[in-house]
Amino acid sequence: MFGKSLKSWAAGSAVLVASMGLFAVAASAHPGGHRGHPATKPTVVLVHGAFADSSGFDAISRRLLADGYPVVAAPNPLRGVASDAAQVRALLESVEGPIVLVGHSYGGAVISSAATGNENIRALVYVAAFVPETGESVEALVGKFPGSTVGESLEPVPLPDGLVDLYIDPAVFPERFAGDLPAKDAALYAISQRPATNQALGEPAQGEQAWHSIPSYYLISGADKIIPPAAQEFMAERAGSTVQKVRGASHMVFASRPDTTVGLIERAVRETAR
What we know:
The chain is of the alpha/beta class and about 270 residues long. It has a single domain, classed as 3-Layer(aba) Sandwich (Rossmann fold). It is about 30% helix and about 20% strand. It has helices spanning about 60-65, 80-95, 105-115, 140, 150-155, 175, 185-190, 200, 230-240, 255, 260-270; strands at about 5, 15-20, 20-25, 35, 35-40, 45, 70-75, 100-105, 120-125, 155-160, 165-170, 195, 215-220, 240-245. It has a six-stranded parallel sheet, with helices on both faces.
């Protein structure tokens, strides 16, 4: 999800992320702190998934900033797992100091590839997210267990290059994607959603997946109608993740239960501190 305003990450320039009234300043070319003066706490990098943008992270970003964490909301193009991971990987390499990397939904597949080989990443936090093994696609994982409504909720928009942009029908978005949020908030998220391509959802994960070598944490949304809770439990167990389950939570658990989400992120910080 892109923030409402994102200025250049180029060396020597300041970074200003503004998202619905939230402003976070990251220093120079190194969002985690100046060279030689690293932040005392790890930078939390947030990666959104499909049918969403960075505005959904506002509530957890406010809490993390108040607790003294540098926060970066990474732009996720939603064009394809490999290309999206390459863009996020480049951003991660610009961050000075330790990182806790958080991915929601499709963002989980992206961080699983983007984090590989980056020694600064202390923990992966999956929030109602996909955790693929090499060769698995998001589409295949969501179909492993019954209960997802995503297939029947999609509205396709053919693109000139032959790909197809996929949106969640705004008429069903509030109930199926964000059922535990106030209706007026869910309706706004439906309007601001960003599409993923059919390639992004169908492309198998490539190369080594970072959860094999980096400690992981998983927040399961117990009433999820996009990724069935059984699928989330399967992926979390396979990855050996530390798990917390939120009963009654929708796919947007990070927006509806920000305190719980931040609690798991900060637990990951404590337990992986060096």
